Amino acid sequence: MKRKTDIHFITQHPSCSKTLQLKDYKPLVQSVIQAKNIPIKQLRVILVDDEYLRTLHAQYLHDDSYTDVMTFNLSETGEIEGEIYISLDRARIHAREYGVAVRNEVARLIIHGLLHLKGMDDRTPAQRQEMHRTENRLLGEFWER
User: Fold this and answer.
1) How many domains does the chain have?
2) What is the chain's Cα-based Rg?
């Protein structure tokens, strides 16, 4: 039986609506949630700028550096109520570095956040490698480039 997940995309970045169609990401999110059996009741994907995410990074992880994605599970028990914050500025920088479209890099970051909500970690090189492999597999499976 399919789980019903309430999914919201929020943009706090001034140029997001000009460059991305956020509704295009909903099928990706639903497919990854189902494929990885992630018990998410509610999800907010929030696109922000570098400075906003850097502030969150400093506040919650005590690291005053730029990052591309941060994930929060706001529920204490049961089904996940998650928030995935994505720096659109970092996504653009990485897209240029990797030679991919910004929309594809944002898709990868959404998947990365979902994997964190599933419980995957990327603190060690081995964990990062496994996360990257899983991201690529899910991108290939569920995202039209």
Assistant:
1) 1
2) 14
| CATH classification at residue 37 | 3.40.390.30
Phi, psi of 42 (to 5 degrees): -140, 140
pTM: 0.93
Q: What is the pLDDT of residues 58-77, one digit of tens each?
A: 999 999 999 999 999 999 88
Question: What parts of the chain have a pLDDT lower than 70?
Answer: 1-3, 16-19, 145
Name the residue with tokens 């997001």: 16
State which residues form the domain around 85: 6-142
Q: How many CB atoms within 10 Å of residue 77?
A: 4
Contacts with 139 (C-beta within 8 Å, 6 or more apart), sequence order: 104, 107, 108, 111
Q: Is there a domain that residue 117 lies in?
A: yes
